[in-house]
Every structure is written in C-alpha cells, then in structure tokens.
Design goal:
This protein is mainly alpha-helical. Helices cover 46% and strands 11% of the residues. It contains 16 helices and 11 strands. Helix 2 packs across helix 5 and helix 4 (67-75) packs across helix 5.
C-alpha cells in the first residue's frame, strides 16, 4: 500500500506542476472539482491513519501525550492543522460518513456538522405511540442530512440540522427541540467571554464568544448604526466596529452606569499644552495608551476640559479641593499623577484602584494630592497591614516612594512603580 500511495503522490505532484493554459474553461472548473475531491480523499486517508496509529498507541509509545502533539512533530504542522486532523479522525468513526466523503457526496466540514447534529439529539426520541424508536430516528436524520449536503454548504447545513427533527420526526420535534435548547444554553453560558489585547501597532484586537441571547442583544444595539448610506465606503466589519464604539459613547453620556473609581464612567485623556504656540501635544488615556494630537482635538469637541497645572517633571502643582473621599477633580489628579496602582511592579490601571491616605484619615491625615496614592485592592490591604512593613513617603518631586520592609530589601531603598511612570 505504501508503494502504491507513493506512486499516486508522485503522479499528483506531476499533474499539479503541469501547465494549465491549454485547458478550456470547462476543463478548469472540472479539474477544480476533481482536485477538491482528491484533497478530501487524501484527508480521509490521513484521518484513518491517525485513528489506526492511536488504536495502536503509537503517539504514547513515542513519548507524546496525545495525537495532536505527535502529528505536530511527525508532519511538522502547526497546532491548528493537527487539531483539525484529529477532529476528522473522530468524525470518520461513522463509516457511513467516511464512505460519503470518498464518494464525493459530502466534504469533511459537512460531515463534521452532521456528526455534531446527530450527537446533539436527545437519547430518548421514541414517538409517543412507540411506532418509531430512537435508533430509527437517528438513522433517518443521518440520511436526510446526507441528502441535504448536496444543496447546502456546512454553515447552512448546521442551521438546517437544528430543525432536522421537524423533517424526520415531527411528533417529537417540539419537545426535543426545547430540551436541546435548554441544554445548549446551560452548556454555553460558562464559556462566554470577551478579551481586549494590549495595543500592537496602534490596534487592539477584540475576541470572545457570546451565547445566543447575549448576541441577539448586541446585534439589536449595533444594527441601527450599521445601516450603510449610499456613499458609505466602509466594510461591514468597519461598520460594526464604529457601531460598537458609538454605542459605548451613547452609554457614557447617560447616568445609568455605576460609579467607577469614585466618578461616573468616563474617558480621561491628559495632554500637554504649549501656551506659546497654543497647540496640543500627544495625549495619554488613563489606561496609558498614547493618542495623536488630532485624536485629542476630536475628543475635546465632546468633552469637559479640566486644566491641571504641572511642574517640569510632571508633578501636579495645583488642582482639586479637600474632602474626605478622593473624587471629582482630586481623583482625576491622582489618575494623572500615578497612572495606575502606585505599588512597585503592579500593572493595574487607575480605574481599578482606590485612593489611599498615606497619613491615615483616622489619624488626622488630610485628603489632598500630597497625602494620597492610588492602590489596587490587594496592595491597599498590604499598606494597611502593619505586619507587612511597607511604608510610603513623598519625594522632592511630590511623587510617592515606597519603602520596602527589611525582609524584602535589607537596605530599604525607596522604589517606585516604573510600569506606569515615564521620565
């Protein structure tokens, strides 16, 4: 078999390198169909070989924890192709589907959708009159999906599969469908999530997953802002990105959001101003992201401007007013000075911090910029713990220095958070 496969592979390689210009249009499309089927057949063979290797324990015998790691080393492929090949091997455990791929009736993505659909069917699907049992319904569903694969690509076949019982067992479709949706919602909810990457070359990547209900709410909010005008040259993805930003702008203008960091939620940007040239410089958001002067000007069109006088080293000279809690102008000044949790090495942004009195309020300490520092919850507890031994003092530039306890630094050299501060 190996020699025969090597001969076929050599013949396919020669065919792939052959000139294509003499082909007619009909031959080009016909060969494209044939080449696609050949790729599917080759993948079926690979998947069957993976199954055979796993049944013999070859990956474990060669020191690999699973088939994916073994394939990455053996074939020098990336993690994603290795995962896909293992997934194909699992799909082809159903012989009927494997033969359907070899016959050209379905491709591997369609076969994977069929397996997912069949696996999602409830275990007890018997008709109430007992005329049709569960096994027979599953067989009917498999046959129907194989027939539909000739009409629908995988993503459409998945949607059709959600209603397959309406085609093959309408007597149990409603009850089984409701039970399946309940199980799906319970399974999906713990897996929802949303992340925003750190900026790279001026871009922040968003990624995540939502349940159906959450996605419907998001789509309802974005849709009115995604309707293109005749002269709109944005792509659909760009329209959705702009719509998401606009929804957030609208919400920030309301008073419905909870207080964040002692103030209503807001975007804060600090910017240098040259009074001689009357120009704005590069701005910095309260999360430490730098934005261009053009962006600062645009943001300033819909913003409250709060002047803060800074010294040559960036220290705050004049702002805010005295009160027990650091809020309003004082809180903004602390954001501007500390740029986040002041504890050395901490990367928490200012909105995740609390304002700590260096000279405790209970002991008579004032609430002003020269007696306060931003600390995250964890480090706030550290500074209030007498056993921890950390102390704070302010340097000549009116910025906080942290004095470590002797067990951290025998010399107790003052240190600062260099993650947030910039010279």
């Amino acid at each position: 078999m190996l020699a025969e496969l090597e001969r076929l592979s050599k013949g396919a390689a020669e065919l792939a390198a052959a000139p294509l210009w003499p082909l007619s249009d009909h031959d080009v499309t016909g060969m494209l169909h044939a080449a696609h089927h050949l790729a599917q057949v080759a993948t079926v063979l690979q998947a069957r070989l993976v199954r055979q290797a796993c049944s013999r324990g070859i990956p474990e015998a060669q020191g690999y924890r699973n088939a994916k790691g073994w394939l990455r080393s053996l074939l020098l492929v990336d993690p994603q192709p290795a995962r896909e090949l293992v997934a194909h091997a699992e799909v082809l455990q159903r012989p009927v589907l494997g033969q359907a791929v070899l016959d050209g009736r379905v491709d591997l993505r369609q076969a994977a959708v069929i397996v997912e659909t069949l696996d999602a069917l409830p275990d007890d699907l018997a008709q109430t009159d007992g005329a049709v049992d569960t096994y027979a319904i599953v067989e009917l569903a498999e046959t129907a999906l194989l027939d539909m694969a000739g009409e629908f690509p995988a993503y459409q076949l998945r949607r059709v599969g959600e209603r397959i019982l309406e085609h093959v067992a309408p007597g149990v479709a409603d009850q089984a469908g409701a039970a399946a949706l309940a199980r799906q919602e319970a399974r999906v909810r713990p897996r929802r999530g949303f992340t925003m990457s750190l900026p790279v070359n001026g871009m922040v990547r968003l990624s995540g997953a939502l349940g159906l209900e959450d996605a419907a709410v998001v789509q309802a909010a974005l849709h009115p802002l995604c309707v293109p005008s005749p002269d709109d040259k944005r792509t659909p993805a760009q329209q959705r990105a702009d719509a998401l930003t606009e929804v957030c702008r609208v919400v920030l203008r309301t008073a419905e959001l909870p207080v964040d960091g002692g103030e209503p939620p807001q975007l804060s940007v600090s910017v240098a101003y040259d009074p001689l040239a009357q120009t704005l410089g590069v701005g910095t958001t309260d999360t430490g992201v730098r934005v261009s002067p053009e962006t600062v000007r645009r943001l300033a069109c819909d913003a409250r401007v709060l002047p803060v006088v800074l010294g040559g080293q960036g220290q705050v000279l004049n702002a805010g007013r005295r009160r027990r809690l650091a809020s309003g102008a004082l809180r903004r000044v602390l954001h501007l000075r500390d740029r986040g949790c002041g504890f050395p090495g901490c990367d928490r942004p200012p909105r995740w911090t609390e304002a700590h009195h260096v000279w405790f309020w209970a002991d008579g300490g004032p609430t002003n910029v020269d007696n306060m520092v931003l600390l995250c919850v964890r480090h706030h507890k550290v500074l209030h713990d007498p056993g921890a031994g950390w102390r704070i003092r302010f340097g000549p530039d009116r910025r906080p220095d942290f004095i470590p306890p002797p067990d951290v630094d025998p010399y107790q050299k003052p240190c600062r958070n260099q993650y947030h501060q910039r010279q």
